[in-house]
Amino acid sequence: MASKAGAGSKLLVLVMAAILTAGLSARAERGATVPVLPQDASDTRQAMAEAEVRWIAGKTGWKTASVPRIEVRTTRDLAIMFFGNAEGYEGVRPLALYARDQHILFLADALALDNLLDQSILLHELVHHMQIGNNVEFDCREETERQAYRLQVEWLREHGVAQPYAFVGVSQSQIDGLTCP
After folding, report:
1. CA 169 to CA 53: how far, in whole Å?
2. pLDDT score of 168
3. Helical pair 10-30 and 116-133, crossing angle rounded to 10 deg
4. Are 156 and 167 in contact (CB under 8 A)?
5. In 100-128, which positions are buried (b, 16+ CB within 10 angstroms) versus exposed (e)?
6. More exposed terminus of the chain, fewer Cβ within 10 Å: N or C?
7. For all residues of the chain together, what is the average pLDDT?
8. How many CA atoms lie within 13 Å of 42's alpha carbon, on the beta-carbon side?
9. pLDDT digits (tens, 9 = 90+) for 120-141
10. How many angstroms separate the first and last alpha carbons of the chain?
11. What is the pLDDT of residues 38-66, one digit of tens each?
12. Rounded mean pLDDT of 138-158?
């Protein structure tokens, strides 16, 4: 997801808002978790990101990229970075952002990486990192998002989520609708 609000269509922002809203509310409702073993939170993030980068490379045929620097911020900070204001878009604040030019992945302190939905949000942002690292060309930003969402859904299916679109809180037609203006 971009680091500036104007970097995509309104539909892109609406789809992102739906996914981020799901991330905030679905955690308690769905309760799907995967045990996370490392004791240090940064070790956990690093190990998870490395595993997800390998998974992405295996699915896409891209070369495996090193994990970007990961920084933890508040959702308020991320909203300011993405939307330019602390309130976000219709009250929704991002849970993760990838700064393409800086190669930094920002995660919200609200993410619980023992949760499949939150792990899939990390994976989504790592797809963007690997798109950049592998010089994948797209006609527009919406195409990068469509690919990231499709891989996120595939990853969730492989991790036992029977209805990944509902789990994420977005429909397949919304993701398929992410096309160039």
Report:
1. 24
2. 87
3. 140
4. yes
5. beeeebbbbeebebebbbbbbbbbbbbbb
6. C
7. 81
8. 5
9. 999 999 999 999 999 999 999 9
10. 17
11. 446 778 889 999 999 999 999 999 998 89
12. 95
Q: Which amino acid is at 127?
A: V
* Residue appearing with tokens 């939150």: 118
Written as six digits, the tokens of 44 are 């956990």
Q: What per-residue confidence (pLDDT) applies to 156?
A: 97
Tokens 């976000």: give the residue: 88
Which tokens sit at 93? Answer: 């604040």
Q: Which of 157, 97, 150, 101 is nearest to 126 (CA)?
A: 97
So what's the pLDDT on residue 65?
Answer: 82
Question: What's the pLDDT score for residue 36?
Answer: 42
Is the separation of the CB atoms in 48 and 82 below 8 Å?
no
Cα 168 from Cα 116, distance rounded (Å): 10
| Backbone angles phi and psi of 107, in degrees to 5 | -115, 140
Sheet with 69-73, strands from edge to edge, namely: 69-73, 104-108, 96-99
Q: What is the DSSP letter of 67?
A: P
